[in-house]
Amino acid sequence: MTRFGFVKSRLLAGPPSLPWTIALGFGFVVIPALLRLAADSVITGTAFSTFYPFVVIASLFIGWRGATGVALAAAVVGNYFFMEPRYVFLAQTGDTIGVASFLFSCAMTIFVMDTLRRTLIDLEVSSQREAGLNSELKHLNGELEHRVKNILAIVQALAAHSFRGVPDTADAIRKLNSRLHALAEAQSVLVIGNWEICYLPDLAVRALAPFNGQGAVRLSGPPCILPERSCVPLVLALHELGTNAVKYGALSTLDGIVEVRWHLRNTNGSGTAQELVLNWMEIGGPPVEQPTRRGLGTKLVAQQTGIDAATMDFRPEGLVCEMVVKDAISEDNEEARAVSTKRKPYNKAVSLSAS
Question: Is the pTM of this model over 0.90?
Fold first, then answer.
């Protein structure tokens, strides 16, 4: 460590304990007194010459309070033992002026050292804060880069599957635009300033609002928080289910309805780990047949990153789909309340009717 580094470390370090402060203060008075006594035959007319450096050292090692005590003790010792007439405290006016001058000089020294200490502490705190902000910014930039790459990969997949095997280009473009709109909604449900969570029912409201013109979509389930990895896949899956329901399922008829219900279940004995179970049920639509071709829509509702399990049951009376998302958190949980202030509320105007 360099000398500057040593001085800096001492300035940044807090004062020692009281016993150490007293012991060091005593040494900072006795040592210069002994040095002054040893040089008594050489030094004349200067009672405090050996005390000044030790006041500076005291300011460095034991703080301004300890240094003040050293200065006061040095003033008494220097005046009593080394100012003529000796062994009398403040015997003459010159003695009083000399002591006052010494104490004033010590006060200025202590003030400068304490100001330097506080300045270095502020600079160190600012430096640490800046380093923390730079680290957070680097993390956010990494998250943003990762998210953009994921979005572009999804867009490529949507485009490839939308145009594959579709002779009608206009219809393919409509499909692509619809899925891109769902993708945009998936991004909007992520909390601003926090890219690690999204919410139900917000996510379902935004994903299914375009299909709820007749109020036939019914939501039911407790408010909860989902991990970021599940936000985009779940929105796209719900959008795909809604699209199929409008074209071929329950929402293609006037009397058909869709019930979307979810609940949380514990995955261990402690009850802390939970997973979301979301059920999609179509009622009152035309008879359902098992599809003969597996397209992008089926893949969007399948098990994947963010959707830990998915099953589709093409019952004659209506499609039933169940999806499971791990690491969900109930809003009643303390961890959820800790981040609830960051929540971006969804638009109440597009809220679906809940059952």
Answer: no
